[in-house]
Amino acid sequence: MEFGLLGPVEVREQGRALPSGSGRARLVLAALLIDADRLSPADLLIARLWQDPPASAKAQLHNLVSGLRRRFRAEDPALIETRSTGYTLRLGAHRLDLAEFRGLAGQGRAAAGAGDHTAAAALLDRALALWRGPALADLDGPSVTEVREALHRERLAAAELKLDAALALGDHDTVLREVGPLLTAHPYAERLYRHQMLALAGVGRRAEALAVYRRAYRRLVDDIGVEPGPLLRGTERFILRGRPVGQATAPPARPVPRQLPPAVELSGRGPLLDEVVGRLEGTGTAAPVVLLVGPGGVGKSALAVAAAHRLGPVYPDGQLYADLRGSHDTPADPLRVLERFLRALGVPGSDLPTDPEERITLYRSHIAGGRTLVVLDDAADEAQVRPLLPGAGGVVVTSRRHLAALLNVARSVVPALPPGDAVRLLATGAGAARVAADPVAAREIVRLCGGLPLAVCIVAARLAVRPDATLDELRRRLAAQRGRLDELAVGDLDVRASIALSYDALPAGARRLLLRLGLVAAGDWPAWVAQALLDAPAPLARTLLDRLAEVHLVEPLGRDTVGQDRYRLHELVAEFARERHPADEAPAARDGALHRLLDGWLALAGAADELLGDATGDPGVSVAPAPQDGVRAVRAGALDWFETERAGLVTAVEQAGHAGLPDVAGALALRMSAFLGNRCYADDWEHTLHTAISGVRSTGSDRLLARLLDGLFKAHLQRDEHARLPAVAAEQLAVAGALGDVPLQVLALRNAGLAAMRLGRFAEAFDRLERAVATARSQPVAAGLLGDSLDSLGFARWDAGDAATALPVLEEALAADELPDRSLRTALRRYHYGLALTSLGRFDDAERALTAALRTSVAVGDDLGTAYVQQALTDVAVRQGRLGEAARLLDLALAGHQKLDRPDGLAETLRAAGDLAAAEGRWADAVTALRHAVDIWQRIGAAVPAARGLARLERVSTSSGDGAAAAGYRRQWRAVLAELQLDEAALQLPAVERSAVPT
Q1: For residue 835, is it within any domain?
Q2: Could you tell me how many helices (H) and strands (E) the chain has, helices first?
Q3: 670: domain range?
Q4: Residues 476 and 554 occupy one common structural domain
Q5: Which residues bind DNA (predicted)?
């Protein structure tokens, strides 16, 4: 196919015009053709299509590209490729007039440079002949106008070069014939006036030539306020002196600056490099500007230089480079930079304007009409950059700041390297074989470097000069509590110094905030943390946070699920803050900041705990008012807030313990307890409680200790750590007794009963639980604990196989107090009540109770409770003969317990699966499921549930005709009951009506 852009957009196949679509489809085709064989980023295409893109812009662009593929499928099904960030039109064997024009113009420029003016004139004439009128003549819109103007500048540059060749050949008639229309289209192009003056002088019309200078002078001064430049002024002087025109046919040689530093090898930057190059390769804007932003040491400069080197052929008129020193104490003066640029472009020092505006205008005039790339490295701010932006060519800017006031700029944030790419960068400097020999240490090294290329390169350099050092030795030094930044310095490469450049340039308030953020041990944190650390109003804290984010010392992470703006510190920035903090701020100020931070966590955790409806009560530790931003997030969803802040809360407990604030650590652990149990975060639950208990034991805060022991009991219970339960309950009971605290004694008695129940010691369990109930009934201060105590007693009666006795106790528990409907305790009581009803054969009532429990569990986000209730509803469905519904519920329960990794819950669900398989006559499946359940129960020491599984295995084996296996199972369960002194009612064997029996 033959594609045309130098005139109306057209597509031809063997001379036959092909439809190219209409409206936006043709505009997309033109945009892809302009950047043919290069990536056209989707966001850039969208910007060309719409000034104010609709929400569906990406989808519409996709549809437009799909339409073009269908239109040209017969001619080339692989014409347009989809890439991760955009599209690429592959020309292959197809022809494009723009590509041919650029190729011929480039050859003409080369021929002229070699002094072959005849070849240059012929090649440039062929190039210009490809134009059929204004570029993209049948398209309109602001983006089209910009592209058209950029293409017309290329056309003008080729035309001027052709006129240079004609003058060199003495072909003055051709110059005079062609220069008039060109001046009409480009009335401010000084080189065209020069061509006309020399051609007129060449044919003996010197007076007319000087009149052309006067007209040019008036036009330039009157219209745009500038006088003719040195080239045109020099031409006037040349003609006035009466010199032979042949001596002035070639304009003064204009140097082609090549100022780029050497390129360095990049790792992991391929897609980002392609994106930068793609934005600068095309002619989509008058002067495309790409801004690379990121923290010091992330590799912005290396990326910019690599892109500029790759773009050399696209910018044949040179590459200008300036280190603007924006992160240093004294940034570069843009007027001094302009002076260097203009000298590099061939302007003599005597012709440099002193007026800033004149200097900027001269710079832009020299860049106009050509293809020059400008690299502005380490920009300080917008004011420094603006004078250095030309009106043509292309620009790459790097900065630690976002330079938000720069408009029409394509910004790309340069991130830290992912682990794999960072390891490859390490191998490049330290040696691939060395890194491959210890991949574990290599990955840990790059993690400790935070993926920062500067840090990785420093480590690689240190290893390169120490062939005897091992990766593991360096890993250990980097992992040390202090001194990591000492390891990340070699020669003039220094991570600490790089961070310090940004830190030292900050105002005092922002420096103070950064230092105090080093106190935050969590990986990421919400905005209110800054307010607490500073003890400042929220607007001021936000302003200072924004200042830190602007220079990439703090990384914004966006909004979380409860509407909070979140941030993080890079590991090495946090290390820098911790290192500088002791020197830059008094200990009292540091301690005050940490105490306010911990108070904030405790106040918000308390508010969230109360909203969950299952709080264990005020821990009795006074706290400051909660930060309002955090309060709004808690009210948006207490469970989601806990989920979002879990890591921060766990580290807050640790920090409070290390800071000598055991009461704060204990109160925080208590406030988190219901949530951690609800979501089965067993490791965090036990860790926070053990951390708090170890501190509280040494302070004599026995009331808080008793509360924490209650939480630890629940954590062990959830993890099926039955053997640990009696000791915790006993210590809790002793502490509560010594205090004479009746409510704490009721809690301890209840736990002691549950511990005995879990171990199959039902007589002991009933004794402890009945004492708990009696105490709660008789002591008004413990009345709020009556419902929970009754619920535990009723559940123990049911677990022992006495559902008839359990039922009225559980009914009383439901009516004992007015719990909110959205409460874990409400769901638990309904669940236990449903179990008793199921055992008594009241399946409809059981289903209603369990369905209500399920609604509550789902509503409060109790995944564990949800899985248990689904398993109980499976039992009801099996016993009602609704086996299809039972299978559906069983799948849900099994998925829930597998996700939560709760052994007891998984075993109960496998037991239910065995009952369902038996009901369907699938004896082998029933045996498999039940054996698996028994194995789990025996492993965790749950003797009674294991006996129940063995009794079911006896039934299934008998039904399947395997009498020997049945006898073996019978001996096993009888031995368990005998040891625990239980009767067969504890086995809770249902009467299952089998829908199928073996034949």
Answers
A1: no
A2: 45, 17
A3: 508-719
A4: no
A5: 1-91
